[in-house]
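In response to a reviewer's request, we include the raw inputs and outputs for one of the modeled complexes. The two entities were modeled together in a single run.
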Amino acid sequence: MPILLKLKRRPAPPAAPIDASSLCPDRLAGLGRREVERLPILVGRSDVPLGELFQVSGDGGEAIEVEGDLSPFALVGASMSRGRLVVRGAVGPRAAARMRGGTLLVDGRAGDHAGEGMTGGLLRIRGDAGDHLAAPVPGAPRGMNRGTILIDGSAGRMAAARMRRGLIAIAGDLGEAAACGMLAGSLFVFGTIGRGAGALLRRGTILALGGTAPLPTFLPAGSQRLPFLELFFDALESAAFPVPAPARRAAYRRLVGDVSGRGVGEILMPAGTS
Amino acid sequence: MRVSGTLIEDTYAEAFTLRASRLVITAGSGRWAAIAARVMTGFATSVIGCGCEAGPEGPAPGRTPDGRPGVRVLVFARSPGDLQEQLMRRVGQCVMTAATTACFDDLPSEETVRVGSRLRFFGDGHQASKVLDAALAGAAQAATDDAAPPRERRFWRIPVMDGEFVVEDRFGVRKAVAGGNFLILGRDPEATLAAAERAVEAIRRLPGVILPFPGGIVRSGSKVGSKYKKLIASTNSPYCPTLRRSVKTALPDDAAGALEIVIDGLTLDDVRRATAAGVRAACGDGILRISAGNYGGKLGKHLVHLRPLLQETAG
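The model returned the following structure tokens for the whole complex.
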């Protein structure tokens, strides 16, 4: 039986976000209702029992549903490696940070640094995501390294910094300075991408269906139909993440770079866009 | 026992275990996928002399990994190592070289062999890999009724002169059944060949099996062993009409000769299903008997008894 958590009231925004790293299948699976209620949540400088903030029902399963606006809660689903966590509402910063496996579905918007240091699993955000999506954990040389992030809305600045592996797909627009220092992996944006995308790109693919203003260090490399894209598009559609019709079986204008760092990555835009 | 007037001999076919992989070759058109599949499965009639047995499988897949027209191919070899070597050579020389193609694994298995991960070096350092994470690949698998546990899939993009050749990093390998067979003994050569062609047509509609020989038919069936010590197989002398007075013949007096259908399948059930369909299609006017090749248990552990099989599948 899934564990159901219902936020009793939206806590007053503390100076620092509430540490909700307990909200994770790895921590909750196998626990009875009483044990779940006793789990500590760090609010400011004090631990508060989870039961004070949430009404708890169900127990034992690896499936967890949380209802309520969790915007003040940081680290929801952090370090999760298995199971399924569904949040019916927004989440705060660093959701799915260091996620290794399982599925985190956010039925709302997510704060900054969602998917930070992710190394596996599926993060799905039905609303918008903030800045620094899939960023490296502080001090780490690499960003996201495996896993999949699907954003149904738009995302902010500095997404996919130093990304090493994995897929990020964004149905809406993406802010400035995306995929800075990207090492490999795939960033698909079905809207537009802000300026400065792919600076210091080493390898990897940035798809900008709505176009982007490429840096001058990206060189035109002709137009091409690329069958590998269909593998990803099919998988995205199978996961109920719609792919716009113009993206399918289309020829893409390919720009290679970032040549300032001898990069051989690519920015793909539909042929005919500027 | 008779089917459409043809006697079914009370005998059995003896099949043996090989390792199999299943590939999907896609291309810009069905024609080019078929060309690549045909070339890749050329000179792949028998593991004895060709290193592997291969052929296009069943009807075209309804849905392919990259959404383009495709052909399924089954390849059988003695060991995973042999299979890897054959796949590397054949995908590299026959599929990668064919215009617009791509090549994907279609047999998710615990055991895998490296294909794309070796072919990638053809890219001379310009190759790039793309990984579909297990969570996302799982969604795609579910959409194609693939019941295997979700697995990460890695693909290689190898630059070629018409764009990119996309090939899966590893291909699944499973134990499979090869050497299922039956013999068609006809009153004259024309009727025998026509019956064999009917059998081939019926079997080629089925999934999970291939007919590795030319046109799906073997005229030079073999027996185990030879008077020459170096040979492990030699002509199936009891069924050769020109040896009637030289050896103990298995041909009835009024038979002009025999043709053999050899079936390789992913499972024994696939081989049995194909045997039943083929035998039924072959029986009819001008066909005196249906027999099967067995070697007294010397060759393999899978036995397909003709009469019980046809009784089970009747109606």
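As requested, we also summarize the result in words. The CA atoms of residues 186 and 192 of chain B lie 5 Å apart. Chain B has two domains: 2-14+176-312, 19-174.
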